Amino acid sequence: MRNGVAAVSSLAAAAAWLAPGASGARVCGATAASETFQYRFIEVRYDGPDPNKSSHLSTIAASLGTSSTPLYECVAQWPETWAGWFEGGPNIVWSDCIWTGAGSGADKTVSFAVDWKKKTVYLSHTFACSDKRGSDGLATGSLNLDFNCTTADGSSFCVPKSTSTGDRPTLRVSTTLKTTVEGAAATTPTSCQTGAKTYQSWRLDKWLRQYQMAPGSSAPDSTRPLPADTGPSFALTNLADGSAFSCAPSGQKNGTFEGTCKSAGTGTGTTAAFTFDPVLNMVQVSQHWDCGDSSSFDAVGVEFMQAACDRNFNSDVFTCTSDPVWVGTQTF
Predict the structure, then answer these.
(1) Single pTM value for the model
(2) Which residues form the signal peptide (predicted)?
């Protein structure tokens, strides 16, 4: 699936046009963890780095649905040494699963992350609560996979092992309602002990980035950045406390964009910032809280960003946009 990332751009463009039909609703129940949901990984494949390229990127792709029909296509890329964790550190890399348009989904966003060393896939999805008007639900789950890996001509790929009868395995993941997000004004945690124990995540939307690329140009790398790259701007909303920000780049350091996030007028005692690596398409979001008890805490999330980039009419300028995506923090 080395061409999976390129295919995602066209899927993203289709999803942007079809998105209204992708958002349904689910019952959130009276309490967190009172509802469970099912998804099926129809196809999963890991490809090691292409020996003919110097990028050393691994790719993992999956088709996700509730039956045999794929509703979402999930793709993530990261340097092989990361094994799914940003720079090999404590923050796992999340990636958006893009709606195929093959049916009516019940979710606003679907995301996945992979701990390649443990061969564990994590899944999250957000949705409107049909029984709690104005609220959204967040459900999460995970699945351990057993892979069969093959190496040939210097490259490797892995697929789930077949059953004892030689059939394709049935890979189902159950997700459990983790939290509901009230459609109310943001609140500052009364204590950092409480805030730090709450699962922090964000909705990132209104993504906008522009750059120049002449016809026939190759993809950028660390030695050949894209000309006139504006870096990304976007809106950021914390799904745990409702704090909202407007984010824009403030400069570059060693080719990586650094940005600040201005409060959108909701919440106090919290600030946010981000970085964006235009070569790896990695966004790192960070948020800091000063709590009512004079303590503080931080949360960090990383997203492999799959924006769809279209060439402006009669121009070498590309404009990149995206549907809303979910950015998580630690695993669960």
Answers:
(1) 0.88
(2) 1-24
